[in-house]
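Thread title: Can someone regenerate the structure for this chain?

I was given the following input by a collaborator and told the matching structure tokens would be attached. They weren't. Posting the sequence so someone can regenerate them.
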Amino acid sequence: MEPVLIGELLAGLMFFGIIGFLLLGFPVAFTLAGVSLGFGAVGMFFGVFDPSNFGSLPNRYIGFMTNEVLVAVPLFIFMGVMLERSQIAEQLLLTMGKLFGNLRGGLGISVIIVGAMLAASTGVVGATVVTMGLISLPAMLRAGYDPKLATGVICASGTLGQIIPPSTVLIFMGDMLSGINSQVQMAKGNFAPVPVSVGDLFAGALLPGVLLVGLYLAYVIFKAFTDPESCPATPVPPEEKKDLFRETMVALVPPLLLILAVLGSILGGIATPTEAASVGAVGAMLLAALRWRLSFSILRQTVVSTATITSMVFIILLGASVFSVVFRLMGGDNLVHEFLSNLPGGRIGAVAVVMAIMFLLGFILDTFEIIFIVIPITAPVLLALDVDPVWLGVLVGVNLQTSFLTPPFGFALFYLRGVAPSDLPTSAIYKGILPFVLLQIVAIAILFAFPGIVTWLPRLIAG
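Best answer:
Regenerated them for you:
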């Protein structure tokens, strides 16, 4: 058998081997590195892999740690955790619940709006789902909401942080696509390519995020008209209406100002994502101090939580680097290129197949696991086929939002199950997210058919 064929065969087997070990419950980072090292050893035996290629890994790791763009990740995580500890989400949920309570489906509408605001100011999915589950779910169930609708709205709204800036997923994807696009363009003879930045992805994701929020709101309003018993109104007592305007201003204005400061500075070209993230982190501490919620204990909890989440993501990234080196140098890139290039439909068919594969992987893998495995081996081929990198990144972001919603390993479902009442069946949570998964697919189809929804704002900002 030809060495090239042996290498490509081993690369394909390694990909499916990693999926198999992850399904068995092995830790992600160590599975990526361990299985890749094992297949690298097999490749050495057959003479299709040179172990000296591992010499590039230390420089890669140092590059990750010194990458100014990736410094934004722990800062945005810190901002999100600090805002969650300062109970801004709790005040928002309670106030918006009163504001929309007189409407059928009002509590559902308030959860979606608050979910979007928290996504734009925190981007931490776990904290958002848990907070809304603790506060809104009991209120919705007491009001007579259908448990399936209530749990579906909370899970879907809590995952908006995956796509609405400042999303940590978009930061990683922006950094990856920037490097891949430069390499692809240089290989095609374009030595002065238009750079792709995290700010471009943030701008591109803004309208798709609004689109998703609109689809969620439309579904709740549809349920309010067609099945009013599933989402009844919850009228606010007259004595609580007196200070409602002041409560609304107090709850809304601070997070809105923080959102404008962070996103506005990035989209306006005033600050880089890392600089804006530092402003957001300091702003979150100021908001906590204004609410008399800033203490050494809360600061310590926030720092520990930030370090834990950041370490988890970067360890997966380091394991994925080992996988990328072995897969690429055993000929996996050629295998993927031949497969995607020969699909019917050209580049559109190739993108559709990659989106379908990512959607299916979302049932069994986490978002970061998917982007660290799939993006490095598919993006070079897609960008070589002249796919717009910003459109591709945002499309992947919307697609992978479903990985938090789809069973059996949808983390949003686990977060909500952990704080939901014990008498609420898990089946209600699983059934509740189905309409929202379908709405995600509709959103992907719309963005697929109308790329301008993604590319219009970045091009407008770029002039």
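Residues 204 and 456 are 7 Å apart (CA to CA).
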